[in-house]
Amino acid sequence: MPHVVFDKKIDLFDFSKNFVPIFQKTPILIKISSIFVEQNGLSALFPTVVIDESHQEFLIEISTTKEKTTVRLYPGTDPEKTDGVKSSLALLSNNLQKIFPQVKIIRSNIFEFLESTSSN
Question: What residues does each domain of the chain span?
């Protein structure tokens, strides 16, 4: 399962106030236009649309604990793990790092997508 783990807890309410919708047209269409933060502030969901080989709609989840923050596919949705799906996780992770530059990635299985989207 594609994921990105950061070394610190982030404030998801703060992230939601600063979140800028993501819309990429090429090479793969990716749209992440809204965020829904759980009442307790420990997780947030992002409805996501990716159109590459197919049209997929799914949720990305950001969950946070005292020690770390994780970006992953929401377990209730199961899209095909295409390059577009992995790129959507990377774009959201890059967005998070722009808002919280003090956080560092400590673990991921999509590093190649994080590097390729970091210039966007």
Answer: 3-117
What is the per-residue burial (b if ≥16 Cβ within 10 Å, else e) of 27-64? ebebbbeebebeeeeeebbbbbbbebeeebebbbbbbb
Q: Coil, strand or helix: which one is 88? A: helix
Q: What is the pLDDT of residues 38-56, one digit of tens each?
A: 999 999 999 999 999 899 9
| Cα–Cα distance for residue pair 113/89, rounded to 1 Å | 9
> Cα-flanking dihedrals φ and ψ of residue 12, to 5°?
-70, -25
Q: Are 117 and 28 in contact (CB under 8 A)?
A: no
pTM of the model: 0.93
CA distance linking residue 57 with residue 50, whole number of Å: 7
